[in-house]
Amino acid sequence: MDENWIQVIAVYALPVIFAITLHEAAHGWMAQRLGDPTAEQLGRISLNPGRHVDPVGTLLVPGLTLALGGAMGAFALFGWAKPVPVDARYFKRPVRDMAWVAAAGPGVNLLMALCWALLAKLVLLYVAMAGSAEAVPTLGPPVAAEYALRVAVAGIVVNVALMVLNLLPLPPLDGSRVVTALLPPAVGWRYAQLERYGLWILLILLFTGALGAIVRPITAWTLQIIVTIFGLR
User: Fold this and answer.
1) How many domains is the chain partitioned into structurally?
2) Catalytic residue positions?
3) By residue range, what is the domain housing residue 134?
4) pTM of the entire structure?
């Protein structure tokens, strides 16, 4: 296996697995808050990635899209975890509450991006401190700090990219649930029917590079805001 590919796996594995699996756990948590106990009963409201991992969608597909991203001319990350079952019959206002459940996924990706940014800031502060005092490096080897920084940066990028991707208003992505809740009922129902074609549309957009062209500028803009807020320049 190519050494560069091993390095990519070492840096991106943890951020990708947590970004995808906790995204699903957030759906279950919000559904439980709104009255649906299904995910809780199945043990899907958990921070343990093992409960959510889909071998193909969480491991194989993200790895392939990361590896092929350069060939497609844009940062590419595509994947999924085991879907969290949601029973809208428990909701008082099904359309509105499904929108909240959908929004919880991208919301937790944003939260994770901010947490990774905080870690990156702490690592940079440590490196700066280590450079100004002889005794500080005993807290940990420089190579560990460099690795932690790379993982943290990957965590920021992965979570922001997944947040932006999932907020696209294309069924079955989370953004489409939010749009459906905002549309008049008749229009929203017709719009939701696009879901049967959604996966094929996504795959076409992905492998033609169009998906990257849409996601990349929004991701870059969001990353710039986070970098500025945390002073990561």
Assistant:
1) 1
2) 24
3) 3-230
4) 0.87
